[in-house]
Design brief:
The structure is a homodimer of 249-residue chains.
Chain A lengths: L1 E4 L8 H14 L2 E5 L7 H10 L9 E2 L1 H12 L3 E4 L18 E4 L8 H12 L6 E3 L5 E4 L2 E4 L1 H12 L4 E2 L5 H11 L6 E5 L2 H10 L3 E5 L18 E3 L2 H10 L2
Helix pairs in contact in A: 1-8, 4-5
Chain lengths: 249, 249
């Protein structure tokens, strides 16, 4: 068995964050964190989690940017980047001269009118436009309010260039498969724990995994009537998810 | 008979601009300019055309902003505006307190990260989000290069809020009907002349008008193989369109 979990570190309550990994690790289950975080490198992300008390290493994190780098190398793609400044080091090894594709992440303040027009011009200027998006989230909440997420800007570029983006990140099937490969575990032996009904639960199930939705974070009661996605189980929080899984081993 | 035409003033060669209206006006045909221009008020737009030698009045221009104002008043909608600064005066008579909808135009530099998040927050905060878009163009060309048009940002907000925008402007049927109403002419007696295969030709035909595509401006040879839209005729330029129409009267 193994458990993949996706805590959005910035919003996790500390007690749960510290609670989860020791119980799982002591059980012998493998653990992989699947995040769509694209506002920082995995190194930075892991440091933050460690600071919150997590026993976690970079290798235990599956994130869109490294997945995109693999894809870029495999296909000989040279990206024009429209991403957060703090994510740029993740692409250090990638040839970015004379771009033949655009990679878009949650660029936050970098989603300026000028930067969007520039990314658009690169894309529309290609004979066969390739747009790679690090996730397709609609929006997220920060302390100063709701913000448009990468998915919205992805849709803008898709429409303007009449292309369909390749999504690297949840809920893309390849992204979950990559997390499973990193653990060396087949999907039917893995359980996803997440708060997002579509990205976490739907994505994992589409890949053959079971998926548990926590009733914290992004969860809304209306999720339980979702027209397409039905979790294998609900739990009230991460600690309960761990208890439930361990009790059934 | 009547003729509706859509010159994008900023890009029209002067000789044709001056040529067209006298020939039409002398013929007794009615003339209505259908523009998706939303970077200036109709007043400013008409002044610019007059400066280029056009014999044209504000009443002869059908534009998205006044059409949107009619719609807002009819439905008691109070807009949050995400438009170009120069378009704001067009909404002077409209109650903008406590917004219950968002109106988006080609805001150009006003398409900042902060302004997009603000429009998004208004929209997602409404019980029943209403998004009104002054056109759905994908992009346009300016002297310093290609720019994303209002349609791209409309798609971003549509996706983020899971709504469908109401488009006021070409190719919306209601927009052409409004132009016809202003002339007092039924669609079968009107001819549209335009350079955009979808917005001009397709929109007008959908409304029951005939439509001629000029092989200037936005026209591309690939338009002649468009999978959905087939113009009633092609002409090499506006002058030829006028000659052809007058010779068949």
């Amino acid at each position: 068995h193994s458990v993949t979990s996706r805590p959005r570190a910035w919003s996790l309550q500390k007690c749960k964050a510290v609670l989860l990994p020791p119980a799982i690790k002591a059980s012998g289950l493998k653990l992989q964190f699947c995040t769509n975080e694209t506002q920082a490198t995995r190194e930075k992300f892991v440091k933050k989690l460690q600071g919150l008390g997590f026993d976690i290493s970079v290798a235990e994190v599956t994130a869109p940017a490294p997945a995109a780098c693999r894809l870029l190398k495999e296909r000989g793609l040279r990206p024009h980047l429209l991403v957060h400044d703090d994510l740029v080091p993740e692409f250090a090894d990638i040839d970015k001269t004379n771009p033949n594709c655009v990679v878009i992440g949650d660029a936050a303040e970098n989603f300026s009118y000028a930067n969007l027009n520039e990314a658009f011009r690169v894309l529309i200027g290609l004979e066969k436009p390739v747009l790679i998006s690090l996730g397709k989230g609609r929006y997220y909440k920060e302390t100063d309010g709701l913000k448009l997420d990468v998915g919205a800007y992805m849709k803008a570029l898709e429409y303007a260039c009449d292309v369909e983006a390749e999504v690297v990140g949840k809920p893309a099937k390849a992204f979950f498969e990559s997390a499973l490969a990193e653990m060396g575990v087949p999907p039917e032996q893995a359980i996803m724990i997440g708060d997002d009904i579509v990205s976490d639960v739907g994505g994992a199930q589409q890949c053959g995994m079971r998926a548990v939705q926590v009733r914290t974070g992004k969860y809304r009661p209306s999720d339980e009537n979702h027209p397409q996605v039905k979790p294998d189980a609900y739990v009230n929080n991460l600690a309960e998810a761990v208890d439930t899984i361990l009790s059934q081993m």
